[in-house]
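Practice problem: predict the structure.
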Amino acid sequence: QVQVVESGGGLVQPGGSLRLSCAASGSIFSIRDMGWYRQAPGKQRELVASITSDGGTNYADFVKGRFVISRDNAKNTVYLKMNSLKPEDTAVYYCNAEVTTMQRRGYICNYWGQGTQVIVSS
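Answer:
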């Protein structure tokens, strides 16, 4: 089976920075797109940024110019560098990976991490 684990969340002051990491492990054959989503209390989950296996990126308008998504394919890891953080960035951030397993090659399944809390407050 596949495990997806996020890390790097925490409390930061407005204007500060954090780097989130998400590592996928297990019986992985390949990983296609990876992405970061967030969900604030009382709000719907929304896409923050995504990245293809070849490094193509897509950002939500509200983080463009502040956040940078990257990945290390050798480590099956995706990162989200968050700069100039605002209080409205406060949310639980979830990692998603589109994974083909060794056991079911040719099929792609979405795997989600448990989420990591980001709080931006003074």
